Amino acid sequence: MQQPKKIIRAVTVAQSVGFFEPMVRDLQEQGYEIVSVSSDGPELERLRAKGVKTVVVPMERRMAPLKDVVSLVRLICLFAKERPYMVHSMTPKAGMLCMLAAWLTRVPRRVHTFTGLVWPTTKGMARRILMFTDWLTCACATHVLPEGRGVMEDLRQVTRKPMRVLGYGNVRGVDMEMFSRRPEVMARAAELRKEGVFTFLFVGRLVGDKGINELVEAFARLYEEWGERVRLVLVGPYEPQLDPLRPEAERLIDALPSIEVVGAKSGDELRAWYAAADAFVFPSYREGFRM
Question: Which of 85, 117, 164, 234 could form a disulfide with 5 if both were Cys (CB 3.0 to 4.6 A apart)?
Fold first, then answer.
């Protein structure tokens, strides 16, 4: 009996498996075996429940040369053992390490999806290093998929390899039914909405790179004029070790009663927050879709 073709999907941290999780069932139904590679995290339990083999390979999001070498060796050993039909990586560190390991082990199909670039907002040596890592990722990949045309244009500064954007800019497509105004979502949105209050909504990591410092400062000025007739809801996790907010922004978040930090949300709860908001604000310094 012919063994199913094996596809390894790799991301740096477990929180990012949501990039490919919705596609797992469809790929399995088409006869592929899916293996997930990432750092450890509770999100992996959802994949295991779907019959996905999960392999934990710790990877650092920041520059960490010694730890990166250890991760690279582990990935080389894993790919040599699994002998996959394809390795498809997303997120920067997983992309560089997995594409290099897949190239060294002669995996025939090596795909990386760029979900945004870090170096356009950096300077000096850090910028040169980050551009080199993206060049290395592209050099080792057989297929390069920028998530949007903005990312593709930036990547042309580091590689001449052919690239393809899915549709008008995409990572996995959009489930229109999932994002429809279903009764259960709208009922929850009604609970979250505050009558007579204009709600601004941000969804993403609560870090400086996402423009949270400026967003909080701007909202504080609105609050001075409008008081509790406006509110700002921040949906997402803090990352104090990776990109902490400025102390002034943290003080404003703690001091203003109209700023609500509700933590990371997903599924219908996240969709309900979108439906409950009057305006979505997204002051990120860099995003592949250029929202």
Answer: 85
Q: State whether 191 and 148 are in the same domain.
A: no
Query: Which of 117, 164, 89 is closest to 287 using CA atoms?
Result: 117
Inside any domain, residue 227: yes
Q: How many domains does the chain have?
A: 2
Backbone angles phi, psi at 252, to 5 degrees: -65, -40
Cβ–Cβ < 8 Å for 20, 112: no
Per the structure, the complete domain to which residue 23 belongs is given by 6-155
Residue-wise pLDDT tens digits, 237-278? 998 888 899 999 999 999 999 999 999 998 899 999 999 999
Question: Considering only 35-44, 93-102, 174-183, which range has the smallest mean pLDDT?
Answer: 174-183
Q: CA 38 to CA 241: how far, in whole Å?
A: 19
Measured CA to CA, the distance from residue 174 to residue 146 in angstroms comes to 17
Task: Record the pTM.
Answer: 0.79
Confidence of residue 291 (pLDDT cuts 50, 70, 90): very low
On whether both 149 and 249 belong to a single domain, the answer is no
Structure tokens given for 245: 């907010």
List the strands of the sheet with 198-203, edge to edge: 259-263, 230-235, 198-203, 279-280
Q: How far are the Cα atoms of 28, 74, 248 from residue 217, in angstroms, in the given order?
A: 47, 44, 9
Neighbours of 159 (CB within 10 A): 17
**CB atoms inside a 10 Å sphere around CB 47:** 21
Tell me, yes or no, whether 100 and 235 share the same domain: no
Residue with the larger pLDDT of the pair 161 and 287: 161
